[in-house]
Amino acid sequence: MPSNSSLLSTHSLGSVELSPRVVSALAARLAADCQGVAGMSGRGLRDGLAELLNRENFERGIDLRIEDEGIGLDLFVIVEHGVRVLEVAHTLMTTVGQGLERHLGVRVLEINVNVQGIRSPEGSPGER
Description:
alpha+beta; Alpha-Beta Plaits; four-stranded mixed β-sheet; two-stranded antiparallel ribbon; 2 helices; elongated
């Protein structure tokens, strides 16, 4: 059953609790650093245009689901013009999934990539 509670890991020396915001922020940084990604986007479209988020707000482009077996994520991104969108999406899934598993030791069950727009060469997001 999904929840938005924190991730808790218990060891012999004590426990570690990770806030969902920390997990989302790390996932957003990993995603934004992928080649072909112009940046993270807000979850909805405003007047048919995607909102390119500032680096301080990248975690707003992530929907995180914490489940008993692991985590699931929905990534909302804007890609660069001229890239192969499907290749960028596959790279995002691999990079973010492996990065979260490596850095946090958490099992990633699912990553869904939502391309909200394509950044034109002039730099205006939302162009399709």
